[in-house]
Specification:
about 70 residues, 2 helices
Amino acid sequence: MIKEFISSNELKTAGDVEDALKNLFKDTLQEMLNAELTEHLGYEKNEYTDDNENYRNGYSNKTIHSSQGDI
């Protein structure tokens, strides 16, 4: 799994590894937040139903300060 991660991201330097891990963390965090919102609201993004007048129609960019730097 590690070898696949390294080869798929073409990691050559420690900086490359840092950037790849930062992107992996960012993508994972975004998926977790989306799943949490779906669970909380009870419907998927852009899911239209007759009994629901409130729709998820997007999001705005946010910056999170982490030990990996700003994401």
